[in-house]
Amino acid sequence: MVRAYQDRSGSRNMVPADGRRRAYRIGIDVGGTFTKAVLVDHVSREIVGRYSVLTTHEHQRGVAAGVVHVFEKVLEQSGVRPEEIVFLAHSTTQATNALLEGDVAPVGIVGIAGAAAAKLAEAQARIDPIELAPGRFLPTHNRFLVAEEADEAAITQAVGALVSEGAEVLVASAAFGVDNTTSEEAVRESGREAGLLATCGHEITRLYGLQTRTRTAVINASILPKMNATATMTETAVREAGIKEPVMIMRGDGGVMDIAEMRRRPAMTMLSGPAASVAGALMHLKVTDGIYFEVGGTSTNVGVIRNGRPTVAYAHVGGHETYVNSLDVRVLGIAGGSLIRVRDGDLVDVGPRSAHIAGLPYAAFARPEDISSPRVVSFRPREGDTDDYVAIETADGRRFALTTTCAANVAGYAHAGMHAYGNPLAARAAFDCLGAAMGCDGPTAARRVLECAAGKVIPVVEGLARHYHLEREDLKLVGEGGGAGALVPFVAEAMGLEHEISRDAEVISSIGAALALVRDVVERVVPHPQPEDLKAIREEAIAAVVRLGAQPETVDVAIDVDTTTGRVRATAIGSAELNVRDEAGAISEAEARAIASQSLHVPANRLSLRAQVDGFRVYGDREDGAGRMRVIDHTGLIRLQRRNAIVKETTAGAMPRDLEALWAEAAGDGNAAVVLMHGLHLADLTGLGDLEQALAVAGSEVSGLCGEAPLILLASVGA
User: Fold this and answer.
1) Is the four-CA dihedral 388, 394, 400, 404 of positive or negative sign?
2) Other C-beta atoms within 10 Å of 347: how many?
3) The three-state (H, E, C) secondary structure of 93-136, written as one string
4) Is the bond preceding residue 139 a cis peptide, omega within 30 degrees?
5) Which residues pair with 350 in a beta bridge?
6) Mean pLDDT across the stretch 272-292?
7) Which residues pair with 180 in a beta bridge?
8) Which has the closest alpha carbon to 50: 103, 2, 13, 101?
């Protein structure tokens, strides 16, 4: 059975006045409890429908049943036909949950290396069972072959031995397999003949580091059966519902990939849910720099958006680093539903248990008349917990949770329109009772609770700001998720920072899925990379993201070179469809100026338009000698904000000369942070080590343009 919940705000159908063909995007967030869908107008980006159902874990079609049901209902509700859908994407918690819960397949590993490197490689390719959670392991079985002896018979024998030991999936990992994939593919073929799904090490990454590459492949392979089954059921169900467009899946790094790629690399969907909420902040709220909070009922994810991109790091599983790129997030055991702990009249703590775990309704969402003759009671949410968690019990024996959300309603931080806003009168009655037990009034008790919760959050925010060198004057706290109003306003006030609660915060992950771009990363170890190396890696990144579903015309690439390790990373981002934003949806100069004015905190009439191409406008303050600038794209997104920058309008033909001059002026004794803009494209050259590399990548970027094509070069001074 699928239980459905219509969103409180309702929806409406948008009929274009200009006669264009109606086109819509659907984003679906598959959470642990709810599956939520939003319908977004393809051009205006306005939300025109939304719907929620309980996630269908136990259905014979699994979560796919809920995906299709919520999809059908949001279309029915909005009067939209399946053929009008041009983009469909969903986030998923399945990969993360499977690993957390130990719902994985035993993995057989075939390591391979030449005789000269066999001893060291055998140790590095051997992966012992991985403890995913206390008492929950990913089972592994190992075999090793010397490459010179690894003929078809030897490989078949090794695979058979692994199967007899209980392996249900296969990993092939060869020393230097990123350079020569033949032996890994031979193992995969043998596994296929034995009926096993398999992952080759080179499919996950082309980085060296046999042990980490093998471990990452093991993690990926362990969830192949579950994720492949889900992918098949989801795609089948969506096709039956009349959708012909590719089904896209959120990656853990904030982009999307098509469902065929998920079948091959499901580990890339780890942290898919938080990634969807970040995509929502980027595309829906147009956040360029800030610290985002995804506040649920039990936990909060905190991460960073910098220069219009989420910060990404290698994910850790079972305490071990992998080569899976995912959001760099901090997970805190404090959220909107966190329970309060009181002992002998003193506030002990807030969390980590939540009202959801305890199975109690929030006092803030009760009616005032429900809070009759309340008294404070202590209890244990779960067996083994301390007994100092408190709730209120009313005259009729009902219990209501006292939470951070309740405290925010009492203290005035949760406002009408926020998902966290309930009934302040009911919350106040409950907290007056709590305050009496703590020797104070209700508002004071509420503030103490919020101060305790904020005390867990503020050090994390300060640490992230330091780590990513975020300038305080440009820093904003962005609240997402249903519980955002319970934490973010108070934390922002305590830190003296601006904040914003996402519009439609409770469905921000669905919005992020609907608006997300296709993304992939290509990494190589290339000591002293030459221009031709960078050009080749750039082209490989473009090809990779196109293979995942991006249209070639929409792709932008950023390249970073680590001169210490020789690691080159190319991040490609593109759209799954053309005409993402046509002329009808582009903002005016006045609108762009207003956005820049608000960001720079100066009147609009003080701004000067420093440079312009089709897709970008660069604004600066006429009275500011420091060179503070904002780059606004045609959709209204602040793509860059710079404290001390210089800008140059040029052409494709003059670009090499002007880039060299700008680099010399901006770099000083170091490297320059340069971006190149043309048409609707922005190429970030910031991560390149020297001028020669920058000229090579910039040359590749403009190679198809005529000599008179207009460009913008912008560089940060002193980078």
Assistant:
1) negative
2) 18
3) CHHHHHHHHCCCCCEEEEEEECHHHHHHHHHHHCCCCEEEECCE
4) no
5) 340
6) 75
7) none
8) 13
Q: Could you give the dihedral angle defined by the CA atoms of residues 431, 437, 443 and 449, in that order, rounded to the nearest 10 degrees? A: -80
The residue among 637, 583, 650 whose CA lies nearest residue 611 is 650
Strand 498-501 and strand 476-480: the pairing is: parallel
Closest CA to 296 of 486, 105, 426, 119: 486
What's the rounded mean pLDDT across residues 431-436?
96
For residues 274 and 285, what is the distance between their CA atoms, to the nearest angstrom?
Answer: 16
**Under a CB-based contact definition with an 8 Å cutoff, are residues 34 and 50 in contact?**
no
Tokens of 251: 């990656």
Long-range residue pairs from 621-626, CB within 8 A, at least 24 positions apart, any chain: none
Distance, CA of 98 to CA of 104 (rounded, Å): 6
Distances from the Cα of 640 to the Cα of 22, 445, 483, 699, 711, angstroms: 32, 42, 29, 22, 16
Separation of alpha carbons 561 and 444, rounded Å: 53
CA distances from 249 to 29, 65, 515 (A): 10, 16, 12
Question: Mean pLDDT throughout 642-661?
Answer: 92
Give how far Cα 332 sits from Cα of 212, 221, 329, 413, 625, Å: 27, 29, 10, 20, 41
List, for residues 626-641, the tens digit of each pLDDT value: 688 999 988 888 888 8
d(CA 225, CA 695): 46
Task: Tell me which H or E stretch contains 437.
Answer: helix 424-438
Residues ≥6 apart with Cβ < 8 Å to 588: none
- The reply to whether CATH 3.40.50 applies to domain 105-211 is yes
| Residue 649, strand partner residues | 712
Question: What pTM, to 2 d.p., does this model score?
Answer: 0.75
Sign of the four-CA dihedral 611, 311, 295, 511: positive
Q: Please classify residue 434 by burial: count the beta carbons closer than 10 Å to its beta carbon, then call 0-12 exposed, 13-18 middle and 19+ buried.
A: buried
Which stretch of 194-208, 263-277, 388-402, 691-705 has the lowest confidence by average pLDDT? 263-277
Rounded to an integer, what distance in angstroms lies between the CA atom of residue 254 and that of residue 325?
Answer: 10
HSE-CB for 690 with a 13 A CA cutoff:
6
SS3 content of the chain, % helix, strand, coil (to 5): 35, 30, 35
Count CB-CB contacts under 10 A for residue 572: 27
CATH 3.40.50.2300 fits 4-98+228-270, yes or no: no
∠ CA 479-485-490, nearest 5°, is 90
Instruction: Decide if pLDDT at 326 tops 80.
Output: yes
Structure token digits, residue 426: 């009911």
Label each residue of 31-85 as H, E or C: CCCEEEEEEEECCCCCEEEEEEEECCCCCCCCHHHHHHHHHHHHHHHHCCCHHHE
**Residues in CB range of 411: below 8 A, 6 or more apart:** 443, 446, 447, 450, 490
The three-state DSSP-derived secondary structure of 538-590 is HHHHHHHHHHCCCCHHHCEEEEEEECCCCEEEEEEEECCCCCCCCHHHCCCHH
Contact status, residue 213 vs residue 127, Cβ threshold 8 Å: no
Question: Over the stretch 601-614, which tens digit does the pLDDT of each residue have?
Answer: 899 999 999 999 99
pLDDT tens-place string over residues 139-192: 999 999 999 999 999 999 999 999 999 999 999 999 998 889 999 999 999 999
